[in-house]
Design a protein that fits this description.
Length: 1877
């Protein structure tokens, strides 16, 4: 029984504290005036009566009512029902000034109305939540007051405060206040169930299902929740609704449904809360960054970005949404029915409220299913002490990784849930019944929404009956005020109540209650049933490692063999067992088997048995998390203290000393759970019969022949009141003794597993977060490692005692913390606790002394037999820096070579050594799996390619102890994860890292391997080698001396900005230099001599400069030569300038540059200042057909942009440096335009001004499937130019590809729209056929050219594009490496290979580069010159101009041409190889940026689409990609030619190149290899003259380069040819010797291990190898492969010509089987897809055109792509014209027939030149061929003997030959084929 209301309070406006219109509230009266003893008066009520503040209003508002909730210091909630009405301010002040007697006078009670009104509140304070009853009571009081009823208010208040009602029990009570009113109060049946009314249903209607679920999850995971509404009652209802759906959990944090405005600072508290605030304060809540705001009026929930709300686990979340939608909208499931049910309607609001609550009750039942099976009862008397085993609960439900449930179980609400519902003997409610009885039903109803809904409705009915036990009773009678009474002008002031009268009624009621007997309703207690246990879940490792009977059998057999001492059999099974132990079921099987053997007294093992058992234990523990959710570590804990081996007399080593390296032993929660489990078992043993076993391991399982611990506890709690005090005290003491003894036992156990065998190593400090995290090692000590491991430690330091004491103190502190916690929770007395603290140091010290003896004896064990270290092969000049360190190469994220999903043998992990040389980092070893075989595993990469090195730790299944590990990543797409062996000391590891870092980042570039290789050997053999290179050194010395002089003067003059100084100082020199240049269209080799006018000091410089790639290419292109003539033809547009021969103008440019003829050298010097790094525009290539030129430069400085592009012709007040430079730039570009032949022939304007960049890019692009370039309208172009081939598109990989090339620079690069394309993929006609076009296009960076305006009088146009910078390339490359070579296996769905590849955006960058390049190719091909002016001019600019030349000029697709292209554009024009490759210590911070690799990848993409256009193979590109970062050669070192000259590596002495063993240039090395082997040659090379390539650049057309993913573990990278060259020749010889034997010739090729290109060479390479072998056997001089190849090609061309001549004179072509039989043998290249291509025949067709052929001219290579399937001339035994009769009613028609004996076919074509076969007759189906007779419609004037018939199994054919001789020839040939078959 409880009071209905504890206090009645009148709160009014405080005029004394009034400030303007706002003041405070004050308590005018309260009843009773004294606090109740059991319920003190809550403070601060006046704030909650007016949460928005006490304010005066100008008009009277209707009365309001709401319920606020206050929480006291004891967490008790007080419900404050506030009834507020407004009174006139004048009346209140009058009442305050008059005495009480005057106030009661009627004449003074009525006053004139005023303008302002003040609020007054009537407040009821109660501990019960009866909102409607409070509303009725306060309304009745207001009615009595406002309507002047003849009832004393004191009577009403006194009756209200003395009303006593029951709290629960389902009873009803009728109350009356004495004003003719009557109310019926129904109490809930069970007070543990919340009373919600309609609040939950209203909350869902206001916010919706998903929003409420967000709030539900946020409340459970302890987030801050704020409700906003303009209605206070809605705020109260919403908060009540949230608490109702949280049942059976109780919210234990701050709960304020209505927060006053003056307390808004509470919202900034760090603790979780549920608070409601009026919408008036919305603006003050916007700055809350960690609060979830729910707007009830707007129906929205706002979750801040920094807040993560963990949602329900699937599929529970989806099921809950579905059921809630069925409850909220039952018509939804019938909405699509043709005949929906007519009686479907939503439930009433009160019923719907209970249905929604029932859904959440059903949800919690599934979330907490089986929770009682995870309860540990550790004390029964005097009060139950229960703990929850969280790890076991999550593990059995397979929910360990579920974030939501982890947070819920760690929350305070669940802790209260366990303490309240954990006791096994108590009163139960609906949730307990649901968990005990309905879980099977819930499981069966899963997936059946209708059944679930039926169950929900049943639960809802129980909830409704709990709140409304008598729903039909509604006998309320409450008098309400007259309508509109609050608007009366003359209203009476609420009177001052008589306190004495009210107190008298209260006292009278109190005295009567004391005399009445107390009503005590006994609480019904019973045993709480646990319900069904958690269902067995599927192993999370998947089906491959799931429960398999075969795997369990292997585990059992292996353990049996170990204990039966059949160690050879056990060794065979051990690798399979270690793999099987990945499965949880297999790990549980292991613990069960070991437990059985331990009970059979088999615990003492020999050394080998001990090793195997410990290895399996370690493997079992390594996959256990620190929580041990599956109980594996718990099951092994007693076993590790049982199994042991004898080391000597009285010295025994237990298994626990070898399994300490696991995180689970460091987890305090694990030890607590284990302790509570064992205590429960022993407590249970106190109360069961003696014959029942007390050794059960499962803490909650009902044991055979007995009851569970919870059931025993329930019985004991029921019997407890009946026991005498002596018996009770005895039971309490027994339980405490049990806990105390277990605490001592666990102190021993913890010391076993926390104290290392070598106490000098404090493992606990390192692994508990107190030490360096990276130094943690999760490895395992087995066998004699315990002894050998200690040898590497300094045991003679003299500080063993001190170190040991440190270990002891650490372990003692850890155990003390554990003992304090568990003993305090278990109710152990302080005396026992002090005893424990005293004993623990002694226990630890005693165990340390035992371990010292074990440690000493373990060192005497024989060492483990380790495999012999294999030494790697080294290059000439490569030297070992350190001897091999024994390591294990661990597997990484790549599935290959691990025996994983892709299959194969487990090559990794492998055991061997890591070798550090001056050039490479090499691992060489053998697989640790003994069943794999004797394969050698090699993995290496150049030290210069190392990008990242970090320390890591391992969970390994090895016998060795791994102290440290390293992860080494290379930019050659290689990764090494190595674990150092226990014999490798930490000092050696640090020395290894130091040497590695020193070699990776030398101080200077001279410290790289390319410079240091072979130096020591050379110094010993040739001490006078300095004189040999004297001329080279003199050249470098003279060059740099002159350069420094010039540079010094240049800087002085630049500082003063006086250009005339340049002209004055060097004008004469420039004049003579200019006369040394001669330009000619055709290069004249005889003119390559030095001018006599060049200074003698520069002659050697110039002679070497002429030999460089730039000058050679300029001569080839006809751009100019160095001549000895003193005159120059002024008709030539360009000249070779030597202005930069001393590298004074631009340090990163070559010495010779192509500039316009009319531009003088002093002008060039001034122009160069406007460009970044002085990289001014120079010509690098010229189109031989259109004479358009390609220029390259860096981007402009800001000054140049402003002065040049924005206003080039703007008038200025006076001359300035900037203006003159801008004009000279304009003249420079004008000179380039005038150099074009088409400029002088032009008759009209030619510009694209006004076009957007997107339109321009579309107008110059050609789009279509293998379409040729449609030329723009060119009146000045010659006829020859129009007819010449213009390019080709496509790829032979996809024949019917509809995707087309679209260089949409606007959409992809400039971000603009382009006009819609045509149906065939081409650009729109209006833009495509526009005739205006600029002579020069400048490709520039959009960000730099922002704001520029096009001058209408210029003949050039700027194309702004968006390009990526090097940072994007760097970041993209890092992500690409992690995608292709991941460091670990990831099971996340968003971390798959293709997702990571997409995230890297590497292919997007390739797409952009190719897109811009093809755009430039189109512009050049349409007679417009292009200047590429991007960034600094040495990264993206170099990529684009190189690709443009490669696509436009077939010469660059040869090996010689590609070398020249790289030397010219990348080396001479100053790509920063050293800086981008981070080759030295100075560039280490810049990181590796693979700009050149990106270019090679683009070439690879083009190579894939046009495989017949390149002389070099894909391997050639991979070779360059590997060695440009390897630093083996000097080619790609340094950043420009100037730096190479400074170091003397620019020019080598010619004599030095002969017979060199160490190659300094990668090109010389390639030439050498190319002479020996065709590895770099492309057999498909069949180019077309002048062919322009236009590749598809869409991402869908790009392929990932296999250079990034391919690996050969048998030999390592194949790019150092000497190391792997002889490896595959020896097996061939041995095979050849064994041909006479009966051995199988089959080969096993392992992916990822063998080099397939060598084990399975292509057909042509194989034939060349066999030919060379035959020549060696015959004693002939072996011919070079290239000569053999050229002879074969020449022979094929000759035979093709003869064949074509023969076909002109004979209507029938009969190839003899005896003549030219070798010709038809052909060479075939087997592609990876398995198709065979006759390359020689294709080449013959492409290179010879039969005279008299209908198709004039040379066929395009694009037609050859279709010849791969239809080229069959080599199979044509007989061919000619035959008339064939068609089907019924069809005439005779002549067809070209071909008899193919090879394919056993008779094919026919439309004509002789037709390549598409119209029909095939399979000779296998021919039954007969005979002479025939002419039929109707047969050809006339033909001999009858010329007819013959062919009968097949399907139809009858009629043929007619030209004459009888040919007919007989056909018959004989067909019969010959039939007889041969």
């Amino acid at each position: 029984m409880a009071r209905l209301a504890d206090y009645f309070v009148v709160v009014g406006y405080d005029f004394d504290k009034r400030a303007s219109s706002e003041s405070q509230g004050q308590i005018l009266q309260r009843f009773p005036e004294k606090d109740w003893e059991d319920n003190p008066f809550p403070q601060g009520i006046e704030l909650f009566c007016q949460p928005s503040g006490w304010q005066l209003l100008s008009e009277r508002k209707p009365p309001t009512f709401f319920v606020a909730v206050l929480t006291d210091i004891n967490s008790e909630r007080h419900y404050c029902a506030c009834f507020t009405f407004w009174e006139s301010v004048g009346d209140l002040q009058t009442q305050k000034s008059q005495p009480r007697e005057a106030a009661e006078d009627e004449d003074h009670g009525i006053v004139q109305p005023t303008q302002l009104f003040a609020p007054k509140s009537l407040v009821l304070v109660s501990r019960l939540d009866h909102t409607e009853v409070f509303r009725n009571c306060l309304s009745l009081m207001y009615t009595v007051h406002i309507d002047h009823l003849n009832v004393q208010l004191e009577t009403l208040i006194g009756n209200l405060l003395t009303c006593i009602i029951p709290i629960a029990g389902g009873s009803q009570r009728t109350i009356t206040l004495g004003a003719g009113d009557r109310q019926v109060i129904q109490t809930p049946v069970n007070d543990s169930l919340p009373v919600s009314g309609c609040s939950v249903a209203l909350l869902f209607r206001q916010l919706g299902i998903l929003n409420v679920l967000y709030l539900f999850c946020a409340a459970l995971t302890e987030q801050k929740i704020l409700f906003l509404s303009s209605s206070y009652q809605r705020l109260s209802d919403a908060c009540r609704g949230i608490l109702s759906i949280l049942f059976p959990l109780k919210y234990s944090f701050t709960y304020v449904p209505i927060l006053p405005g003056k307390l808004l600072e509470v919202l900034s508290s760090p603790t979780p809360f549920i608070i409601g605030v009026n919408s008036f304060f919305r603006s003050e809540t916007q700055e809350l960054l960690d609060v979830i705001i729910a707007d009830l009026d707007g129906g929205t929930v706002t979750v801040p970005e920094c807040v993560h709300v963990s949602l329900l686990p699937e599929p529970l979340l989806h099921q809950t949404k579905t059921v809630l939608s069925m409850v909220m909208d039952p018509e939804l499931q019938y909405a699509d029915y043709a005949f929906p049910p007519t009686l479907i309607q939503s439930s009433a609001l009160k019923i719907q409220d209970k249905e929604i609550r029932a859904v959440f009750l059903w949800l919690f039942a599934q979330l907490f299913q089986g929770y009682r099976w995870c309860l540990h009862i550790i004390r029964i008397h005097p009060e139950p002490v229960i703990r929850f085993h969280k790890a076991a609960f999550l593990g059995q439900g397979a929910l360990t990784e579920d974030d939501f449930l982890n947070k819920v179980l760690d929350g305070m609400a669940f802790a209260g849930f366990v303490s309240e519902r954990g006791p096994p003997y108590r009163a139960t409610d609906l949730f307990d019944d649901l968990m005990a009885n309905d879980m099977e039903r819930i499981k069966m109803e899963e997936g059946h929404p209708c059944k679930i809904l039926r169950h929900i409705k049943e639960l809802a009915e129980h909830l409704f009956k709990n709140e409304n036990p008598y729903p039909s009773v509604a006998m309320h009678k409450i008098q309400k005020p007259t309508e509109g009474s609050h608007l009366r002008i003359h209203q009476k002031i609420f009177p001052f109540l008589d306190e004495v009268a009210v107190q008298f009624r209260i006292d009278h009621a109190a005295s009567s209650q004391k005399s009445a007997p107390p009503v005590v309703k006994p609480e019904k207690k019973c045993l709480v049933l646990s319900g069904p246990p958690i269902a067995a879940m599927v192993d999370r490792n998947g089906s491959a490692l799931a429960n398999s009977a075969r795997r369990l059998e292997v585990v059992r057999n292996c353990i049996t063999y170990i204990f039966e001492n059949k160690l050879l059999e056990a060794k065979k099974l051990l690798p399979a067992v270690l793999r099987a132990l990945k499965s949880r079921v297999a790990r549980q099987c292991l613990t069960q088997e070991l437990n059985l053997h331990s009970q059979q007294n088999r615990a003492v093992l020999d050394d080998q048995q001990f090793d195997y058992i410990v290895r399996m234990m370690n493997c079992t523990l390594q996959d256990c998390s620190h929580m041990d959710e599956h109980g594996i570590a718990a099951a092994l804990l007693p076993l590790v203290t049982v199994f042991c081996r004898k080391l000597g007399a009285g010295i025994t080593q237990f298994a626990y000393s070898c399994v300490q390296e696991h995180s689970v032993w460091m987890n305090m929660q694990f030890w607590e759970a284990m302790f509570y489990s064992d205590v429960q078992n022993h407590i249970r043993a106190l109360y069961i019969e003696e014959n029942e076993s007390c050794d059960q391991q499962d803490y909650g399982e009902q044991m055979p022949g007995g009851k569970s611990a919870l059931e025993i506890a329930a019985v004991q709690r029921r019997l407890w009141p009946t026991l005498c005090k002596e018996k009770q005290l005895e039971l309490v003491q027994k339980e405490e003794s049990t806990v105390f003894s277990q605490a001592i036992h666990y102190a021993n156990r913890m010391s076993y597993l926390l104290l290392p065998l070598d106490t000098s190593k404090n493992r606990l400090l390192n692994r508990s977060g107190l030490g360096d995290v990276e130094s943690v090692s999760n490895s395992y000590v087995t066998n004699s490692i315990a002894g050998s491991m200690a040898e590497s430690y300094d045991t003679e330091s003299g500080f063993e005692d001190a170190e040991g004491s440190d270990v002891a103190n650490t372990v003692v502190r850890f155990i003390n913390r554990f003992v304090d916690k568990v003993c305090t929770e278990s109710g152990v007395t302080n005396e026992h606790l002090k005893t424990l603290h005293t004993n623990i140091p002694d226990i630890v010290q005693m165990h340390i002394e035992t371990l010292e003896a074990v440690h000493r004896e373990s060192k005497r064990l024989p060492p483990i037999q380790k495999p012999k270290l294999l030494r790697p092969s080294l290059l000439v000049g490569e030297e070992l820096v350190m001897d091999g360190l024994r390591v294990n190469l661990m597997s990484d994220g790549r599935d290959e070579a691990t025996g994983g999903v892709s299959g194969g043998l487990a090559l990794l992990p492998a055991e061997g050594a890591i070798f550090l040389t001056t050039y490479r980092l090499i691992f060489k070893g053998t697989p640790t799996d003994p069943l794999v075989g004797e394969q050698v595993v090699t993995r290496s990469f150049p030290i210069a390619s190392l990008t990242k090195e970090k320390k890591i730790s391992f969970h390994a299944q090895m016998e060795q102890y791994f102290g440290e590990g390293l992860q080494l990543r290379s930019c050659t797409f290689q990764l090494m994860k190595i674990a150092f062996d226990e014999e490798v000391s930490s000092d050696l590891v640090e020395l290894f890292r130091k040497h590695l870092h020193k070699l990776r980042y030398p101080q200077q570039v001279q410290g790289t391997f390319a410079f240091t290789v072979g130096q020591s050997a050379k110094m010993l053999v040739e001490p006078k080698s300095k004189e040999k290179n004297q001329s080279l050194k003199t050249l470098s010395k003279n060059l740099m001396k002159n350069a420094k002089k010039t540079i010094g003067r240049q800087y002085v003059t630049r500082k003063k900005y006086t250009p005339p100084t340049w002209e004055t100082r060097s004008g004469a020199q420039f004049a003579t230099d200019e006369d040394d240049i001669s330009i000619s269209e055709e290069p004249d080799q005889s003119s390559l001599t030095l001018s006599s006018t060049i200074k003698s000091s520069d002659r050697q410089t110039m002679s070497n400069v002429v030999e460089r790639a730039c000058c050679r290419d300029y001569q080839r292109l006809g751009l100019g030569t160095l001549s000895n003539s003193l005159t120059r033809s002024k008709n030539e547009p360009f000249r070779i300038s030597t202005v930069n021969r001393m590298y004074t103008v631009c340090r990163s440019y070559p010495g010779l540059l192509i500039v316009p003829q009319s531009i003088q050298d002093p002008t060039i010097q001034r122009i160069s200042r406007c460009y970044r790094h002085n990289r001014f525009p120079v010509v690098c290539w010229r189109n031989s057909r259109t004479k358009a030129v390609l220029l390259r430069s860096a981007g402009l400085h800001g000054k140049g942009v402003a002065g040049f592009f924005k206003s080039p012709n703007a008038p200025t007040a006076g001359p300035s440096q900037t203006d003159s430079t801008s004009l000279e730039q304009e003249k420079y570009l004008q000179a380039i335009i005038k150099s074009m032949p088409s400029y002088s022939e032009a008759t009209g304007r030619n510009t694209l001004s006004g076009f957007s960049s997107a339109q321009m890019s579309s107008s110059v692009s050609v789009i279509g499937h293998r379409a040729r370039v449609i030329s723009l309208s060119q009146p000045r172009a010659t006829v020859k130019a129009r007819k010449s081939p213009r390019g080709k598109w496509g790829s032979i990989r996809v024949s019917n590809r509809m995707s087309s090339y679209n260089p949409d620079i606007g959409t992809r690069l400039a971000g603009k729209d382009i006009p819609p394309p045509q149906a065939n993929g081409g650009p729109s006609e209006t833009h495509f056929l526009r005739q205006q076009r600029a002579y020069l296009y400048i490709i520039g960076d959009k960000s730099q050219l922002k704001g520029t305006k096009q001058d209408p009088f210029q003949q050039w146009e700027v194309v702004p594009i968006e390009v990526f910078d090097v940072r994007q390339v760097k970041n993209s490359f890092k992500k690409l490496m992690k995608a292709c070579v991941p460091s670990s296996v990831s099971n996340e769905s968003n971390m798959t290979f293709y997702r990571c590849l997409e995230d890297s955006e590497w292919l997007c960058l390739l797409h952009k580069v190719l897109q811009v390049s093809v755009l430039v190719v189109e512009l050049l091909d349409s007679s417009s010159s292009v200047m590429v002016s991007l960034e600094e001019g040495w990264d993206i600019t170099t990529q684009v101009v190189s690709l443009v030349q490669l696509l436009s000029d077939p010469y660059y697709r040869t090996m010689e041409g590609f070398r020249l292209l790289v030397e010219k554009e990348w080396l001479s024009f100053g790509h920063r190889f050293s800086h981008r490759g981070a080759q030295t210590l100075a560039s280490q911070s810049s990181g590796f940026t693979p700009v050149f690799l990106q270019f090679l990848d683009c070439v690879h993409q083009i190579h894939l689409q046009f495989p017949m256009e390149f002389e070099f193979s894909q391997y050639y590109l991979k070779f360059l990609a590997y060695h440009y970062v390897s630093n083996r050669f000097r080619t790609f070192l340094l950043d420009c030619d100037c730096e190479r000259i400074e170091l003397g590596v620019m020019y080598e002495e010619k004599g030095e190149r002969k017979n060199q063993t160490v190659y300094k240039s990668v090109w010389d090395y390639i030439d050498k290899l190319n002479k020996k082997t065709p590895i770099f040659f492309n057999y498909m090379f069949s180019p077309e003259d002048g062919e322009v390539l236009k590749p598809y650049s869409h991402i869908s057309n790009l392929k990932l380069w296999d250079f990034y993913t391919y690996e050969t573990l048998s030999e390592g990278p194949s790019y150092d040819w000497e190391l792997v060259h002889g490896r595959y020749e020896q097996p061939d010889e041995s095979d050849r010797q064994d041909t006479a034997s009966q051995k199988s010739q089959r080969k096993i090729v392992w992916p990822c291990y063998d080099n397939r290109s060598k084990v399975e060479p292509d057909a042509i390479t194989k034939l060349l190898q066999e030919l060379q072998s035959l020549e060696v056997e015959l004693g002939l001089v072996s011919e070079k492969w290239k000569d053999t190849w050229d002879k074969i090609k020449a022979t094929q061309r000759t035979e093709t010509k003869l064949e074509s001549r023969h076909s002109l004179f004979s209507p029938l072509l009969l190839s003899s089987n005896l003549i030219h039989q070798r010709r038809t043998q052909g060479l075939y290249l087997q592609e990876s897809v398995g198709s065979s291509i006759n390359l020689l025949e294709s080449e013959n067709i492409a290179t010879s055109t039969p005279s008299g052929s209908m198709a004039s001219g040379r066929r395009s290579t694009s037609t050859l792509y279709s010849q791969f399937q239809t080229s069959e001339s080599e199979h044509r035994s007989l061919e000619g014209v035959l008339y064939k009769k068609g089907a019924i009613l069809k005439p005779w028609k002549p067809r070209w027939f071909v008899l193919d004996k090879t394919k056993h076919q008779l094919r026919y074509y439309e004509s002789k030149i037709d390549k598409d076969c119209k029909g095939v007759i399979d000779l296998a189906e021919v039954e007969s061929v005979n002479q025939g007779n002419p039929s109707m419609g047969a050809p006339k004037n033909i001999d009858e003997k010329a007819f013959f018939d062919l009968k097949t199994t399907k139809r009858f054919y009629n043929f007619c030959a030209p004459d009888s001789h040919n007919a007989q020839l056909w018959i004989d040939s067909i019969q010959s084929c039939l007889s041969d078959a």
